[in-house]
Design brief:
The protein has nine helices and 21 strands. The relative contact order is 0.22. The two termini are about 45 Å apart. By secondary structure, it is of the alpha+beta class.
């Protein structure tokens, strides 16, 4: 076992000691059939933003838009780019013209899935009083989730600047490589992430002003929308944020981005308990981070606490995948016109071994 004690409120071990799917295990044949039974109109909706949106790096300074470039001829002095490239240059008499490209892509820049390796916690899994870097089901940082350095543990009196770190041997990988040997997003790809989706239209109930949604507000919105979830459903929340991003056409206004639309209050314990009790298999929103980040709750007692409490609860404790920046406006309008909230959702991430997140092109079918 990778742990002797599990975090309070977690489900570690419930799906087996080596489980890497978490609550996605609840999407079984019955849930897929229920999703298929929601297909009545034969209409499909793309739930992805263009992957070069929001534009710039106003949402997250570490993440940048994708950069496309041509592949180049190997072993040639001129390294010719293979766009509009006549193959007659390398095969006499050939009439083919080839274009071939590649992309430098931040995997969580736009419409995305978070894998279970995205957020862990400093936790004492051995019960010996020592904090370790731990992820869902006890998988360990530096053993199962690998990066190029060991940052060490922060000191309680840290001024916000990272302390000294120790470079790690990359075992034949590039010096700046990272890889999830466990909990990578390819596990969700193999699962398929296809089943019944349920949409709660927070924007239709509350508008698009800047606000936090706790348990009471979510229950009210679900009642107003006529939405109910069952174990194995994937819950989608529309706040209007992705529509706002789309309207900015790649020229985001940081002030509006950071002060518009609803987000879940990850510090509401009743909301977190409802997520546990609901049995949902995934939680998706059209906003950045699903929860309000940074939180507007004040932690002034000096006690250790997560900055992303909903991420910690879902990814670290429950193994509940999170989807962010999904485009839900057109689907929401169609469901509202039909008086429905349920649909078939098909949303596998890239089957990219070792990746911590993935862009996704979800499809909703009515």
């Amino acid at each position: 076992m990778r742990w002797r004690q599990r975090p309070p409120g977690s489900n570690w071990g419930d799906f087996g000691p080596d489980d890497q799917l978490g609550r996605a295990n609840l999407i079984g044949p019955e849930q897929v059939r229920r999703g298929a039974q929601e297909v009545r109109e034969g209409r499909s909706f793309c739930l992805s933003l263009p992957l070069d949106l929001p534009g710039g790096n106003a949402l997250n300074a570490r993440r940048h838009p994708p950069r496309l470039s041509p592949t180049r001829a190997e072993g040639r002095a001129d390294g010719r780019p293979y766009v509009n490239f006549p193959l007659g240059h390398v095969h006499a008499g050939a009439t083919d013209v080839v274009s071939d490209d590649q992309v430098l892509l931040s995997l969580q820049y736009s419409t995305q899935w978070d894998s279970l390796a995205h957020v862990g916690s400093l936790f004492d899994p051995e019960g010996d009083g020592r904090l370790r870097t731990v992820y869902y089901n006890g998988y360990r940082g530096h053993e199962h989730v690998l990066g190029p350095v060991d940052h060490g543990l922060p000191h309680s009196d840290a001024d916000g600047a990272p302390g000294p770190y120790r470079p790690l041997c990359c075992e034949g990988r590039p010096a700046d490589a990272s890889v999830a040997r466990a909990l990578g997003v390819e596990n969700l790809a193999v699962k398929g992430m296809q089943g019944r989706g349920v949409l709660v239209d927070l924007a239709r109930v509350y508008g698009t002003q800047f606000q936090d949604i706790g348990y009471d507000q979510l229950m009210h919105a679900m009642e107003r929308c006529g939405a109910a979830v069952e174990p194995g459903d994937m819950l989608l929340l529309r706040t209007g944020f992705a529509g706002l991003v789309l309207s900015m056409q790649g020229q985001p206004d940081p002030e509006r981005l950071h002060h518009s639309c609803a987000a879940l209050d990850g510090g509401d314990p009743r909301l977190l308990q409802w997520i546990t009790d609901s049995g949902i298999a995934a939680l998706v929103a059209d906003n950045y981070a699903v929860e309000r980040h940074p939180s507007r709750r004040v932690h002034d007692d000096g006690a250790p606490h997560p900055l992303l409490p909903l991420h910690e609860h879902c990814l670290f404790k429950l193994g509940l995948p999170l989807g962010e920046l999904w485009y839900l406006d057109e689907l929401a309008d169609a469901l509202h016109a039909l008086g429905r909230t349920r649909f078939l959702l098909t949303a596998p991430p890239l089957r990219l071994p070792g990746a911590i997140g993935s862009p996704v092109t979800p499809i909703a079918t009515l």
